[in-house]
Amino acid sequence: MANETLLMGAVAYDPKVVTIWDGFLAWFAKNGLDFDFVLYSNYERQVEAHLAGHFHVAWNSPLAWLQAERAAKAAGREARAIAMRDTDCDLTSVIVVRADSPIQSVEDLAGKTVGVGAGDSPQATMIPLIHLAEAGLEPNEKFDVRRFDVLLGKHGDHIGGERDAARALMQGEVDAACMIDGNHLLFSKEGTLPSGATRIIAQTGTYDHCNFTVLDDAPTALIDRFTELLLSMRYEDPVVRPLLDLEGLKVWKPGRTSGYALLERALDRFGVLT
Amino acid sequence: MNTVELGALGLDRGGHLLVKRALTRVEPGEAVRVVGSAPELAVHLRAWCRSRGHPFAAEDGLIIRRGDVERYNGAESAGAPNAVVDDAPATWGLAARGATIEAGAPAFDFVLHAKDDVWADEAARLYAQGAASQWDPATAIPWGDATEIPDAIEDAVVQVMTYLVENETAALVVSSRFAAQVHPHYFEVMQLLALNAADEARHVEVFRRRALMKRERLGLSSVGGQASLKTLVDEPDFAMASFLLSVLGEGSFLALLWFLHTHAPDPVTKEIARLTAQDEARHVAFGVAHLGRHTTADPALRGRLAAAIHRRHDALAHTAGLNEEVFDALVLLAAGAWTPAAISQGWDAVQSLERDMDLGRRRRLERLGFEAEEAEALSALHTRNFM
């Protein structure tokens, strides 16, 4: 790796990923930072490559963050989260039934079928399932789990799994479906879940989503400059605004790791469902 | 604290409009309490606020704060609704004049972005007049009044209509090309050029229909006629094209159409000539108005316009000019009969038409600031094809 170029790893969950990072690359270059990126098809490969020193900073899903952190610890090393999106903070997921369903509470899901997203989706699978497990409903024991696996390895970044679960709910194939709070609003507006046709029976606790992860051997000066530039991006700047819109944020915030407790418990309890 | 009452309305059914409205009424950082009974309100409000950059302050009572990151911070105004700027920026693009434009809009390549190149204060009035004067070819022309006329006279009408079709097609192509090049900030001009093109489309339709009213074929199209029109179609500069087409060409056509109106052998041809002449008068008026303004702002333009006439004259020097059959047809129409005396009269009428055309061109050239002598010389160089 050349010392002067900051290399980032990211997962190509959608073609827009190239647009986003090519755009940021040009913006970083204009601001004096030599930045480049490597795309992986899945987070497992990205975490492995990060530990192997193939790049300096990873744009990680919450699950990839935990995987990197644990792998680093196992190797006697340390991982840090340096930045994240404003929209990565304090998310919740919801468990939804049809409005006319007799199911009124989480307990009523016993013996039923719950539709989730991709097996490795924190928001549409792991966090809703830990919510139910901690309420006394162990998945696959007290109720059946039906997975809607769209693009495994991408940790649910692709919305397809959640949408498929929502459609299955409306078609009566499952008794409940799990999704991120914002997607319930989106699906209601777009008609996948017609307004008033569903009822939310549970909302999980809050959790955080993606972050930029570095390991302890990352080049300090480059990482500091990268972080400083990220945090200096302004939504008012017409050059970066379209990129921020595509990436789904208004402002980058300093990284925090206080929002991953729910997912940690899910990972400990279920492992990664692949 | 400001409160917004949503009643039973959820954010999935438009409730966000009320929330947004409430947020615009407080300063960034200030709180708004959202009250409502939609079952998903708390879940949806949390998600909505996160995606819009508004901090979600409390779940109990649903208090949100207006964020300070907004799309239209740094937006600019695309001029004022009723005033035009001297040079319209490429990034104003298609935005309505006077709209507020988000910063970072794409740059559009409108070639005609300078006011002096296109503007005429009369454009809005001419557009309004043109829009109000649109006539329906199906009903405005008395197609049923097909008088019996001698075959030879009918042939002359068909030949003249064939000639008019190709000339008006050239005018349609030129008008529509430049309509698409005008910066939409000068929308009055863009609309007027589009309307001119629509006029030409109707003219082509009625000329064609008249030609085929009693015949199954159209008349002759000459190399000289098409060569003359090709120099118009190929002219890339708006001022030059407008000068050659509207001021000189359509100006000459005005006299031709009134000549046809006077000498028309039947009511259909007569009404077609009258209605099309009215439209052409507006086209000429705009050409003279915007070039008059342009030459006042840039007197050197006159030299370039004169050079354009010379260039076109030289390019057409080796062509036959007006289709002889068209000229003969005009003589015959004015004659109305095959007797030597009638033909002599027709001949004189066409001579008079050419003098009228010349006088009209000279008068318009003088309105653009050319000296009388130069106007006379330039008018004489105008294409023998009339258009």
* Main structural class of chain A: alpha/beta
Number of E strands of chain B? 6
Any guess at the CATH architecture of the largest domain in chain A? 3-Layer(aba) Sandwich
Q: At the first level of CATH, what is the class of the largest domain in chain A?
A: Alpha Beta
Mean pLDDT figure of chain B: 94
Pattern of helices and strands of chain A:
EHEHEHEEEHEHEHEEHHEH
Distance between the termini of chain A: 32 Å
DSSP summary: helix tally of chain B = 14
Number of strands of chain A: 11
Spatial strand sequence of the major β-sheet of chain A: 2-1-3-10-4-11
Summarize the largest interface: chains and residue counts.
A-B, 27 and 27 residues
The total tally of domains of chain B equals 3
Distance between the termini of chain B: 73 Å
How many domain modules of chain A? 2
Tally of helical runs of chain A: 9
Strand content of chain B: 5-15%
The CATH superfamily name of the largest domain in chain B is Ribonucleotide Reductase, subunit A
Please provide a written account of the structure:
The complex is a heterodimer of chains A (274) and B (387). Chain A is α/β, with parallel strands linked by helices and 274 residues long. Chain A contains 9 helices and 11 strands. Chain A has 2 domains: 6-88 and 208-260, Periplasmic binding protein-like II (D-Maltodextrin-Binding Protein, domain 2, 3-Layer(aba) Sandwich); 93-203, D-Maltodextrin-Binding Protein, domain 2, CATH 3.40.190. Chain A has helices at residues 16-30, 43-51, 62-74, 122-134, 160-170, 181-190, 220-232, 241-247, 261-270, and strands at residues 6-11, 35-40, 57-60, 79-85, 93-98, 113-116, 144-147, 176-180, 198-203, 211-215, 252-254. In chain A, helix 1 runs antiparallel to helix 8 (241-247). Chain B is mainly α. Helix content of chain B is 59%, strand content 6%. Chain B has helices at residues 15-24, 41-52, 115-118, 123-132, 137-140, 151-179, 187-211, 223-233, 238-263, 267-297, 301-316, 324-335, 340-367, 372-381; strands at 2-7, 31-36, 56-58, 63-65, 76-77, 100-101. In chain B, helix 1 (15-24) links the parallel strand 1 and strand 2 (31-36). Chain B is elongated. Classes of the chains: A alpha/beta (274), B mainly alpha (387). The A-B interface holds A 86-87, 89-92, 94, 180-182, 184-185, 188-189, 195, 199-200, 203, 235-236, 238-239, 241-242, 248, 250-251 and B 10-13, 39-40, 42-44, 46-48, 50-53, 56, 67, 69-71, 73-74, 102-105.
